[in-house]
Amino acid sequence: MKRETIPKRRFQHNHLDSIQTWTRLVQEKVMDSDSIQQEIASSWGRCISSGLDPLSPIKPANQPIVDSRRLLEQNENGKLLDIARLQMKQLYCSIKHNGHYIVILTVLDGVALEVLGDKKMLAVGERLGVTAFGSCSEKYLGTTSAAICMTEKRPFRVMTTEHFAQDMQEWCCSGAPIFNDCGKLVAVLNVSNINYKAHYRYILDLTTATARAIEAEIKFRKFHHMYNKTYHYLTSVLESMPEYLLLIDNKGKIDHLNSRAASILGKSQQDCVGKSVVDDFASTYTDRCLECNAELTWQTGKGSTVEFTSLAKTLASRNGDNGYVGIIKPLGLVRNAGNKAGYTFSDIKYCSSLMEKVITRAKKAAVSELEILIYGESGIGKELFAQSIHNYSHRSEGPFVTINCAALPIDLMQSEVFGLEEGMFNGAKRGGNPGNFELAQGGTILLDEIGDMPLELQANLLRVLQEKAVTRIGGRKQIPLDVRIISATNKNLYSEVMAGRFRDDLYYRLSGMAINIPALRDRKQDIEKLFSYFIEKHRATMGVCGNIQITPDALKVLVDYDWPSNAREMEQIAMLVLNNIQTNCDTITIEDLPEFLVSPSRESGYSLKK
Ligand SMILES: Nc1ncnc2c1ncn2[C@@H]1O[C@H](COP(=O)(O)OP(=O)(O)OP(=O)(O)O)[C@@H](O)[C@H]1O
């Protein structure tokens, strides 16, 4: 087929020109490209190259078969349809009083995802196979506005004899492309009718505006989803932290807090959010308190007080609205009521005989008066054991106080652990501040992360152990102590002694009875029970109902994993899984597990540190 070039160019549809050009094409096999719009000429060219005969009737029987289920699963087509349906209905309602129309949503390979219109136009469409999940591709229908929009990636109208196939030449179509949030073309929206006079120019504008509205909804849903996901992650992370955390905005109002923080303040989370720190909790609060590491006393709903030390970080936002992350330290509650250990041995979930032996040993240790040194990797349950030992001992009615020996700067730690004599610093109260050892009187003190205790403090600690008494910083008086010491570490303390980082005399004092908690990877029998326990523990708060099972495949993935951060990591993963699954889901499958667990390359697996 020859192409003739006439120097005159046309950009608008002219019925007479296109009918002449088309007739010439059919009768003389000559395409006069310059007497029709260039986009139409290109489409006709493609139809000719694909062997389409303009005169042969369009038969639905020749249509390529489409697997509708697969189509909906591909490329987020299901979501697109969900969004577009409502907009298509609105578009149709705004034009239907002008005549008979059909609104078509076509996806990339030319398949119609949705078709709606009045009876007459639907019947016209049906005769040509223009139905939901029917192919409307260029190879089948010839030139259409949808086909041109796909190629040109902009709105386009195809009128009557601009259609290549004779069977389509009654049709008038206005189409507009739909792009996703990444700017990728995903579909074309199209309005068609078979009455030339009722295919007004504004129909193309309306179609384009509706396509833009669909795009905006796609973006909105994506951001909404991302926002929800981030919010859930943030909440899960805050909830799983052992600290009492608050996010405070630059006006001193509480933006968010974890449930631990709310419980220590004696209020619900809802009651705390939006409340002013100054008006409702700590009247001496200022931003400077946070910046200069000052201590604050918070009034709680239960009439007691909580020390709020400024282990706070500034959160800078782009628009300069700085906020803070605050950590409430429940020292005040310890002073008022004594700190209670919540866990007992019955809270330790296991099946393995290895763990059975460890628990038997820990119970023996509990009823003795020996100092106990608990060894185990990070997140394995050392604190859980320490609390259980305390509750199993005759000191169970006394306080249980934990000191994290790695967490605080040395000066703060001195006063925290050993107490502060009155008048030592401006912050010291009348009568001085008792340290953690005094607060643990009659009970147990857990020296967590003992392997990280600075050498300077080790000397003071040794003195306390030898003398069974404590002297506050800046004071002279010795205060006799009746405290049982449990230490915990994830380091090899003996190697630390050998390396000169830990005092040998202190090491021998602390390790009256050693308890080794084996890593989770060394007791695979416990994995199923522990994972089910964490799922059940968080199920309700994460909004998932019902009794949840795990498939053998998914369980195998969990069993095969190394669990570098042990039970704490497993708890995080259980929460991520709950976040991934539907609220009414009753089975956890491999697809619900985080990617790094399932993928064979485990190097990128994360490990969580307290
Ligand atoms: N066998 C178990 N059964 C039930 N819960 C467990 C078990 N082991 C650990 N956990 C839970 O896992 C979390 C981490 O435990 P814990 O804080 O006691 O670990 P840790 O060894 O003290 O950690 P770190 O070394 O970071 O101080 C806690 O929520 C704890 O209750």
TrEMBL record:
Q: Which InterPro entries match?
A: AAA+_ATPase, AAA_lid_NorR, GAF-like_dom_sf, P-loop_NTPase, PAS, PAS-like_dom_sf, PAS_fold, Sigma_54_int
Entry-linked SUPFAM superfamilies: P-loop containing nucleoside triphosphate hydrolases (SSF52540), PYP-like sensor domain (PAS domain) (SSF55785)
Give all residue intervals belonging to the PAS domain.
230-281
Per UniProt, which keywords does this protein have? Answer: ATP-binding, Nucleotide-binding
Sigma-54 factor interaction domain boundaries: 348-579
Query: Is Nucleotide-binding found in the keyword set?
Result: yes
State a single Pfam family of this protein: AAA_lid_14
Annotated CDD domains: AAA, PAS
Q: Which domain of life is it from?
A: Bacteria
PROSITE patterns named in the record: PAS, SIGMA54_INTERACT_2, SIGMA54_INTERACT_4
What name appears for this protein in its UniProt entry? Acetoin dehydrogenase operon transcriptional activator AcoR
The source organism is Sporomusa silvacetica DSM 10669
Q: What gene is it encoded by?
A: acoR_4
